[in-house]
Here is the input.
Amino acid sequence: MTTEPARILVWDGAIRLVHWLMVILIPLLWWTAEEGYMDWHRNLGLAMFGLVLFRLIWGLIGTWTARFVPMARRIGSLKSYVGKLRNQENGASFGHSPLAVLGVCALLLALSTQVTTGLFSVDVDGLESGPLAVLVSFEIGRQFADVHEFSFNLLVALIGLHIAAIAIYQFVLKEKLVRPMITGRRSRADFSAGQLPENRLRLLPFIVAAVLSLACIITISNFG
Here is the structure.
């Protein structure tokens, strides 16, 4: 007779690494842009592009809690989940809750817009431009730059909502979300009885996602 482990893996190492690297890169990207260190901004932007691309690929071939299909299926239970939240009857979700799915999609969309527009952006004097700006005219490059600036403001607002939601879960609903995103594990007792999906990191899909992301970064960085 086998016994279930006291703590189970919820977030794989790839998800956690991408998450915390993004946490570090976003303020660095803002600071380098504000201070005019555009070479650094460009290189850090390419790194962020690689992370976003990896996350999108990982959402297709990664572990169960990383994949988009299981996440999308949870949106159907959003109404009942919100009702349970109001009554503080919510239970722990193995992976993203229905509300968290919406947050993840919004953040990934904003990040995707941010890094994509940055690749084609042209500054006012045309001296500092994204690596793919040579593919578009100056006027279109400036339009990309305007969207790039707007999408960053939207991204900051979404990050603020994300932090506020974590605080509410932590202090009002008494559900600790930060520690599992560091260790990857939660207590088995947090979840209802039953079989939970296999969530072990598989090496081959990880290598595929990493190689594809790195190849895109190298290709784009050498384009100009």
Remarks:
- Residues 72 and 98 are 8 Å apart (CA to CA).
